[in-house]
Amino acid sequence: MKVTRRQTLRGSAAALAAGVFRPAIAQSEPIRIGYLPALTGPSSSTGIGINRGTELAVKEINAAGGIKGRQIELIVRDTQSDPTKAVNASTELTRRHKVQVMWGPLNSGEALAATPLIARDGVPQIHPCWVDALTDPKKYPLAFRNAPTNQQIGGAANHYVVSILKANKVAVVSDTTGYGTASLDAYVPMLKSMGATVVYQSSVEANNPDVKPELLRMQAAGAEAIMPWSVNAGFLSRIINTRAEMEWDVPIVGQTTLGSGQTKALLKKPEYWEKVYPNNFRNCSYDTSGQLPPRTVEFVERIRKAGIEMSDTLLWWIALGYDGPRLIADAIREAGSAPEEIAGYWNKVKGWPGVYGTITWTSELHDGFQGNEIVMVQANSLREGAFVLAPGYTG
Amino acid sequence: MLVSIVSYGLALGAVYALIGITYNVMFAASRVFSFTAGMTGMLGGVLGALFIDRLGMPVIMGFIATLAAGAALGIITEILTVRPVLKSLDQHLYVLSTLAFALMIQQLTAIEWSTEPQPFPRLLPIGSGYFDQQFWLPMAACAVTIVGLEWLYRRTLIGRAFLAIAEDNYAARALGLPEQRLRIASYALAGVIGTLAGFTGAEMMLAYFGNGPLLNFYGFVPVALGGMGSNRGAVVGGFALGLFQQTANFMVGGIFASVAVFVVFIVVLLVRPEGLAGAAAARRV
After folding, report:
1. pLDDT at A5
2. B4 touches chain A (CB under 8 A)
3. Which parts of chain A register pLDDT below 70?
4. Does the structure's ipTM exceed the value 0.90?
5. Contacts of B205 in chain A (CB under 8 A)
6. How many CA atoms lie within 13 A of A228 on its CB side?
7. Which CATH number fits domain A151-288: 3.40.50.2300, 3.40.50.300, 3.50.50.60, 3.65.10.10?
8. Which fold has domain B2-271?
9. Is the CB of residue A33 less than 8 Å from the CB of residue A325?
10. What are the tens digits of pLDDT across the range B6-34?
């Protein structure tokens, strides 16, 4: 077949036009963020709280003109608190919807199942899950965490007990779940390395209705603080109730659930919640004068204006949800929407001022949360989703 | 320490004994060992808290509604999971069907109720400390159930009909007894006893979906210890288990308390496989 000069020119022009105009179309397309919250099912209380912050952030970014003129399209799949559904949804989002980036899953169980698949499909991901193994720059170079690790959580509680409460004899107790026993195994050596004496350690069945035998042993061993590691409100409330009935004035320090509404509902008397100090986060806690940090005050005002309900959730859940999409938006705005551009930007993030926490990532460390922002708070001080710092913290 | 062992031990033992009786009542009518027994116990606590705490029913109405729901669940269990597999009892398909149904009940409770333990309301303004109602209510429920069952089986015609189908299903049918209706009634009765156990024990154990598997297991132990089908054996086994478990909690503590319970359970079964009060079954050769 003979090709004329005119045909060659026409072909070249068409090819050039395709090259030139395709990016122009792409520049106006929305940025697709895959989002995997657990909005229903057993673990949904966290997901519902985080979702309020996420929706607010996306609404604000889009209302301000989007990212370089491109709107964010949040493609949501409710994981129903089920790791299997999280896996199916993540594959649907990465392969069928070709999302540019993933926010979530928001629960560790679901993230453990979905993160390897998201990494395999080469999609950058931010998740807020605490299980240590969920970031690994070598295994998952595109996966980043904007929340603390379990190690950081335990470290903060141990620091409070040893350095602030000055308790030298510590009793550590967990339930018999994987989380409970793993926490016990991790935190007891940490306490010992800080100079404390662990006078009692044990794993107990969470359903055991009578924990008095355990507390009597702790008391006989001279424990100056009890550190329970469990997410079971029944188990934790039994420890708190029994301590009060024994008229034992020992502080209880540990897991976030110690301060949850579910634990409160199971206390025999509200005053039993005195001297109970759960984990929380400095930016979302009232200081000794009853004030939130300035950036959080401004954030709470915005939540109020947006008509977001705060009484049935925790402030740090909303703040965490708010930070996720903003970290994504900043990366795309500054570096571009290709996976390596997004991850490249995140690898250099330093001191990013989130509402929930200050984030610093490097190419070697994808755990961005700062350990010194994890604090202990007074369980009985919950007001509009936030707690007051436990005694001994300054500022 | 002794008061704590006795009060918690007897109260827990009473709950275990009642779940054991639930197993037995279903077993007697159908030769099926239904794994929904523990789930009815769990639902006794959950439904009680739902009716009284959340829906604001008076205690007596909430109690009746909970037991009625237990009876309905028993009937559904018979229709859905037992009747279809009765023809092939020797293949033990009921293990799958009742276990699957039990898991469905548990998951549904987790989704619709909560995965967190919830408080159970105080039922009566009586008792405090180790004489609190949370301890004596399950014991009273157990005593009432034992007396009621004895009266039913020994003094009433329908009770004797229950015993007849338990003794020899084919002969009972040949005599014209309505076997299917009696079986349904047995399952309804088992549902009532199971929910009674959960309802009276819930202040101590809380309204919690995770109590289902626990009661399934700890309710099975008295049946195995006491002898399959023996309600008296289940009561003795239940109280012995509760007291031993609580003693082990004090003596060894932690997960070793559970290990101690399993060790005794296995040793008893090795020494006396038919159970402490059971008789070795004769086998036609």
Report:
1. 58
2. yes
3. 1-27, 42, 395
4. no
5. 207, 209
6. 31
7. 3.40.50.2300
8. ABC transporter involved in vitamin B12 uptake, BtuC (1.10.3470)
9. yes
10. 989 999 999 999 999 999 999 988 888 89
Which of B12, B111, B205 is closest, CB to CB, to A41? B111
From chain B, the residues in CB contact with A207 under 8 A are 205, 208, 210-211, 214
In DSSP notation, B174-210 reads HTT--HHHHHHHHHHHHHHHHHHHHHHHHHHH-B-TT
d(CA A143, CA A134): 8
The reply to whether A309 touches chain B by the CB within 8 Å rule is: no
Q: Which residues contact B274 (CB under 8 A, 6 or more apart)?
A: B227, B228, B280, B281
Who contacts A135 (Cβ-Cβ below 8 Å, separation ≥6)?
Answer: A143, A144, A145, A149, A366, A367
SS3 label, residue A35: strand
Locate all alpha helices (DSSP H) within A78-107, ordered by sequence.
83-91
How large is the average pLDDT for residues B226-240?
88
Give the chain A residue nearest B110 (alpha carbons).
A42
Domains of chain B by residue range: 2-271
Q: Count chain A–chain B contacts defined by CB atoms under 8 A.
A: 64
pTM of the model: 0.81
The nearest alpha carbon in chain B to A210 belongs to B8
- What mean pLDDT value characterizes chain A? 90
Q: What is the mean pLDDT of residues B187-203?
A: 97
The fold of the A29-149+296-375 domain, in CATH, is Rossmann fold (3.40.50)
3-state secondary structure of A119: helix
In this structure, the strands spanning A276-281 and A374-376 are antiparallel
The whole-angstrom separation of Cα A78 and Cα B63 is 37
A43 interfacial to chain B (CB closer than 8 Å): yes
